[in-house]
Amino acid sequence: MAERSRGRPYELLETLEPGIARVLAHNPSAFTYYGTQTYLVGEQEVAIVDPGPDLSDHVEALIRAIGGRRVVAIMCTHTHRDHSPASRALANLTGAPIIGCAPLALESVGPRADAAFDGEYTPDRVLQDGESVEVDGRSIVAVATPGHTSNHLCFAVGGALLTGDHVMGWSTTVVVPPDGEMAAYMASLDKLRQREDRVFYPAHGPPVTNPQQYVRGLMGHRMQREKQILRLVGEKARDIPDIVAKAYPGLDPRLETAAGGSVLAHLLDLEKRGLVVQSEQQWTRT
């Protein structure tokens, strides 16, 4: 990740628009791109969205960025370890409550390639879909978007949507069973497609300035992947590694486990719809 890290504005406060700024954590990887982007919402007072990994340099940078302002809330979109662990250090340093997604800590089927769950996350308040937190006289509204994880939330404020990992600005989202669910993920994408947000601010990657078009592209990509999987298992019975090898030629080996998780998510969805069956880890069309 040395090349990806070079020249990035780590631990610096960058203003994106009035009332929304970000600080980039120094945790680049094949799954986090340049790292986790923590957002500061508000001007006279602030909410911290996706506090990120519990890295001392990152926490110190966030305290500098806060600059003595009152922290209304520390808000988490979900509980993967690149998103929520710093919430505890920040709560201790600022006295602010941890508000946002519900606690969740599960193991995936087999080894997990992307970030594991933060088992120590303990919110002071869980937000349901449509509930909000007031900052500087503006509402930050929770938008429930299960799929990447069952507890995933996005946060809407002033026409912007902070999308966590549900929509990323550089890559498609990993959906890994048993908690990641493809049908829920697609339904959540469709939910965003019907909204009128003017910009998405993901936790990883650049802002998305054409949200509805971008979401339609993500949905189209998943539908094409589903058709590809159906074609492959229609040719003959296949296991998941075989499907990954055929569907993702030239794939970075670091991403094979994640690709297998997404293929499994597709297959489980197709199985529920009666389109495929499995026997001894082999999948075929019905």
UniProtKB/TrEMBL annotation:
InterPro entries: LACTB2_WH, Metallo-B-lactamas, RibonucZ/Hydroxyglut_hydro, Sec-metab_biosynth-thioest, WH-like_DNA-bd_sf. Pfam families: Lactamase_B, WHD_BLACT. SMART domains: Lactamase_B (SM00849). Gene3D superfamilies: Ribonuclease Z/Hydroxyacylglutathione hydrolase-like, Winged helix-like DNA-binding domain superfamily/Winged helix DNA-binding domain. Residues 35-204 form the Metallo-beta-lactamase domain. This is MBL fold metallo-hydrolase. It comes from Sphingomonas sediminicola. The lineage of its organism: Bacteria, Pseudomonadati, Pseudomonadota, Alphaproteobacteria, Sphingomonadales.
